[in-house]
Amino acid sequence: MTISIAHLGPPGTYAEQAAVFYVNWLTEKTGIEAILCPYPSIAQSLQAVAARHTQLAVVPVENSIEGSVTMTMDTLWQLDNLQIQLALVMPIAHAFISCANSLDGIKTVYSHPQALAQCQGWLEQFLPTVQLIPTNSTTEALQRLEQELTTAAIASSRAAQLYKLPILASNINDYPENCTRFWVVSQKEAQTFDHTPSIHATHTSLAFSVPANLPGALVKLLQVFAQLEINLSRIESRPTKRSLGEYLFFIDMEADASEARVQSALAELKIHTEVLKILGAYNVLSINAV
Amino acid sequence: MTISIAHLGPPGTYAEQAAVFYVNWLTEKTGIEAILCPYPSIAQSLQAVAARHTQLAVVPVENSIEGSVTMTMDTLWQLDNLQIQLALVMPIAHAFISCANSLDGIKTVYSHPQALAQCQGWLEQFLPTVQLIPTNSTTEALQRLEQELTTAAIASSRAAQLYKLPILASNINDYPENCTRFWVVSQKEAQTFDHTPSIHATHTSLAFSVPANLPGALVKLLQVFAQLEINLSRIESRPTKRSLGEYLFFIDMEADASEARVQSALAELKIHTEVLKILGAYNVLSINAV
Predict the structure, then answer these.
(1) Which of B6, B27, B127, B201 is the residue whose CA sits 20 to 30 A from A221?
(2) DSSP code of A214?
């Protein structure tokens, strides 16, 4: 059996690195093989699954330094037939890549805005006057590198190897404990490809909107979780895009959707929310440094 | 009296437009005049106030479509001696700016990532194959416009007028109710320049971190507000940058910091939080369409 997996491309992005790890893990465990399908945006990776062009997508959710990947949250809210199968946590180590022999003379640095933000201290220390130019992905930054010696890019050392480009400095992130969490997403009715039917999932993710002009509604909803002793590991708000001050909420619970206390919470939430989506119940897999 | 106000530059950005509105309002009300000081980033605008290079900064906090401006939240958390004086809510209308005579033949569109995201539906409808290139500000996008007829930029119509560039289409945002909220920020001990000592501020903003590995702590803290019947108009989480799953929280209360119930809430919060910052008590000024 061969399945297809969408991810933010071109090859060499951190999303592709996470997808490669997942494929190796899946093949070793189940014999299922997979082909990777790069898409130009995170939204298009998720739309590919919704439209059944691929079976899975691997998308970034959250970075420990820069926070939520809002494109992922907004697209998951818009699309109806998707569910989270698994979470992957991957350490991120950025490399400074250039054809120059030294940092002297570097005038322009290209990278994805999240990567530029995660290295801003290093850039201010070593290249205080450099021009920073955002790109759609870390790999696109490498493609902008010209042979001339005044430009550089920030991407993974794996990407530098893929494109045969020299690394001038490694591990340049300002915080060594830099991790990104990814979700493996499938269609709603899909089997779980790892063949471990979730007897006990460690996490369940929800998204909901509350009726307009009801400040304080969130507090009432959070009390539901507190009373049922359900721990929340994350809460994120996103605008409804209707008017300023109206929000959607994304919540990760440390509990399985099938537990009785979670079922009680969901019944209670249904009464007080406008739209309630269960995004999935899943386990978390840690990717060792690569 | 003349004061100086930092904002994201160059002139023509939405932050500058909000600052110009604030200056006109302030001058009319108090006679105080102001000079505007453009800075290359939001972080540098706030750092200018902290370092006493300017008296005020006007910074974007949140857009109704694209959500929080994380750079503003993270910098306010890092700097210690700042306070919010006033909130400004400004409608945002994007224009499509190019030297071309029509949309045919446009191959590249430059703009700030927030503006590109706010017009993605329009772009997909009229220019589905165009290349989108992010820039550090909407004004920088205009500076990238060449005389050649294959490039365009998204910025305000005011910016197009400032730089004497033609507008090909107006109001191209996907959602007509597009607003951005700005904060006017001063040093902590500064007088309120509008000379209305906040007898009753409508909003108070807080930021706090909770001790590590304490999921559910947020629920306990939110119960404090619920029990004291303090409405929250916004709650945002940001990573602590220490490790994945550890968050700071930013909360906007619909109450004045001087009210007894708010004082009770703050006393309670001090016990359960690691660091608690009161970012300011302030009123909200709506900017009419400009």
Answers:
(1) B201
(2) -
Q: Does B142 lie in the same domain as B66?
A: no
Q: Which residues contact A126 (CB under 8 A, 6 or more apart)?
A: A103
Residues forming beta bridges with residue A8, ordered by sequence position: A39
Q: Which residues of A touch B286 (CB under 8 A)?
A: none
3-state helix, strand, coil in chain B (%, to 5): 30, 35, 35
CA atoms within a 13 Å half-sphere pointing along the CA-CB vector of B101? 0
The pLDDT averaged over each successive group of 10 residues in chain A (290 residues) is 93 94 92 94 93 97 86 92 95 94 92 88 92 86 84 95 94 90 92 66 92 65 83 83 82 90 93 92 81
The domain in which residue A274 lies consists of: 203-281
Beta-carbon separation of A64 and B241 below 8 A: yes
Whether residue A83 is found in the same domain as residue A108: no
CA dist A229 and A224 (Å) reads 9
Q: Chain B within 8 Å of A40 (Cβ-Cβ)?
A: no
Same-domain check for residues B117 and B154: yes
Look up tokens 């870390």; give the residue: A138
- Work out the burial of residue B37: count CB atoms within 10 Å of its CB; fewer than 13 is exposed, 13-18 middle, 19 or more buried: middle
State whether B241 and A65 contact (CB < 8 Å): yes
Please name every residue paired with A156 in a beta bridge, in sequence order, or none if there are none. A94
Domain membership flag for residue A288 = no
Indicate the residue type of A63: N
Whether residues A65 and A182 share a domain: the answer is yes
**Interface predicted TM-score (ipTM) of this complex, two decimals:** 0.73
Q: Indicate if B221 and B271 belong to the same structural domain.
A: yes
Structural contact between residues A281 and A257, judged by C-beta atoms closer than 8 angstroms: yes
Helix (H) or strand (E) holding B239: strand B232-239
Return the biggest CA–CA distance within chain B.
63
Counting one residue from chain A and one from chain B, the pairs whose CB atoms sit within 8 A come to 115
Q: Do B54 and B184 share a domain, yes or no?
A: yes
Bridge partner list, A225: none
| Amino acid at the residue B205 | S
Measured distance CA(B200)–CA(B196) in Å, rounded? 10
Other beta carbons within 10 angstroms of residue B125's beta carbon come to 10
User: Closest chain B residue to A135 measured between Cα atoms?
Assistant: B134
- Other beta carbons within 10 angstroms of residue B274's beta carbon come to 13
> In terms of domains, do B154 and B258 share one?
no
Contact status of A224 with chain B (Cβ, < 8 Å): no
Residue-wise pLDDT for B224-276, tens only, equals 887 888 888 888 888 888 777 778 889 999 899 889 999 999 999 999 899 99
